[in-house]
Amino acid sequence: ALVRCPDCRGELAGGAEGLSCGRCGRQYGRVEEGYLVLQPGRAPGDATKFLEESFHADGRDESVSPPLLSAGVRFAMLRRMLAIEPGDTVLDLGCGSGRFAVWNLDSGAHLVGLDVGTFFAAEALARVDLVVGDLRRLPLGDASVSKAYAIDVFEHLSPESLALTLREAARVLVPGGALFVYTHL
Predict the structure, then answer these.
(1) Neighbouring residues of 32: CB distance < 8 A, sequence distance ≥ 6
(2) Which of 151, 150, 118 is nearest to 132 (CA)?
(3) Is 11 within 8 Å of 17 (Cβ atoms)?
(4) How far is the CA of 117 from the CAs of 51, 64, 71, 132, 159, in angstroms?
(5) Residue of 183, 180, 181 lying closest to 88 (CA atoms)
(6) What percent of the chain has pLDDT over 70?
(7) pLDDT value for 30
(8) Span 62-79, pLDDT tens digits
(9) 4, 5, 14, 101: which has the fewest Cβ within 10 Å?
(10) What is the pTM of this model?
(11) Rounded to 5 degrees, what are φ and ψ at 89?
């Protein structure tokens, strides 16, 4: 019920064999191993190194380790500032492996991770709702999440893509919702 067509924002119907948009008729492939693929038909042109296999060759994304050192600091700040609670629907913008979503599972919130790549950790695949999509055309309905966060993501976006991403985050947040952003720049 949360996801929508990234092209027209129409409702999606179907099952494991595939989804289709009730408004524009676009067909989406079958549900992959633990995640939905809801890329827009025509995405803006930025590229990212995070889609390259060589970037992930060291296996860093295969499993979730505890939040230590700088990741622990980011996680503590996120929890303190966003105050995730049961009943929240929380969107991890640019979730990467999904580790921050996994670390937040004990909050009781519904966690959704969205990333352009498919390099998800096993724990995230098993326990988090994951979507492959574009931050600039979020495949979610208007006012569908109560909180969202982006950890070490926005510094990788062009100014134009950042503006589109922020506009999309504002669109999917409920009135009075909260967005937490951590960037090292």
Answers:
(1) 118, 132
(2) 118
(3) no
(4) 6, 17, 20, 6, 21
(5) 180
(6) 85
(7) 73
(8) 666 766 678 899 999 999
(9) 14
(10) 0.88
(11) -110, 120
Q: What is the mean pLDDT of the chain?
A: 89
Q: In what order do the strands lie in the sheet with 12-15?
A: 12-15, 18-21, 27-28
**Whole-angstrom Cα distance, residue 113 to residue 175?**
21
- Residue 181's pLDDT band, with cuts at 50, 70 and 90, is very high
Chain length of the chain: 185
Residue whose C-alpha is closest to residue 137's, from 113, 112, 172, 110: 172
Rounded CA-CA distance 3/39 in Å is 12
Dmax over CA atoms of the chain, in Å, equals 47
Burial class (CB in 10 A: 0-12, 13-18, 19+), 31: middle
Burial label for 49, CB within 10 Å (0-12, 13-18, 19+), is exposed
Q: CA–CA separation, 167 vs 137, rounded Å?
A: 9
Is the pLDDT at 56 greater than 50? The verdict is no
Contact in structure between 1 and 110 (CB atoms under 8 Å)? no
Would you state the pLDDT for residue 64? 63
Q: How far apart are CA 151 and CA 185, in angstroms?
A: 12
Q: Would the pLDDT of 141 be above 50?
A: yes
Task: Indicate the SS3 state at residue 38.
Answer: coil
- Distance CA(69)–CA(67), nearest Å, equals 7
